[in-house]
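Sat 14:20. Reprocessing the chain from the morning session after the first attempt stalled halfway. Input below, unchanged.
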Amino acid sequence: MNRKIRVSDLKNIFSALYFFSENFNRKGECLMKLQKVLSEKKETQRLYTIESGASLRTAAKKMISLKTDYLMVKAKDRTPAEFIGILTKVDIIRSLCMEKSNPDTDTVDDFMTRRMIVANVNDDVEYLMNVMVRHNISHLPVIENKSIAGVISRNDILAQLNVERDIELQWLADCSGASPKLTVY
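Finished this time. Tokens:
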């Protein structure tokens, strides 16, 4: 039985094949680069910062007002900005669990992560997911051209992978009805 297919359907099939060749290896493993995740996030991406020496209460209030889970800590009086650490909501919660903690006098310097693990925009997403899980990291600063291009979270990566899987499934569903004998009209 011959099944007729439109040119637009062929374009969709070739588009799907191109997508798979660019984003997956022969085993079907994802080859997505961090650059793609970062570019999808660029519209809403801002680098949230706080100065070294700020109190934990100030940091917590800033996180709440900005609706973010992290703040990059900048060294005081440095131009251009020099980042010396990252503070996450988990760091603030950890500080509050300490017996002699005082969010008004304790500073971000006391609880921030100084030895940051960073990502490069050309890193594979799957590799970064493994790094984040292995080191229990929720946020990774992303480096591009020796400066911070943004901060990526586990949720950002999972959301992008979810979108890519949905697209993949839709294309497979669209293409699955096609028979080997195609007539173009």
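Residues 178-183 have pLDDT under 50 and may be disordered.
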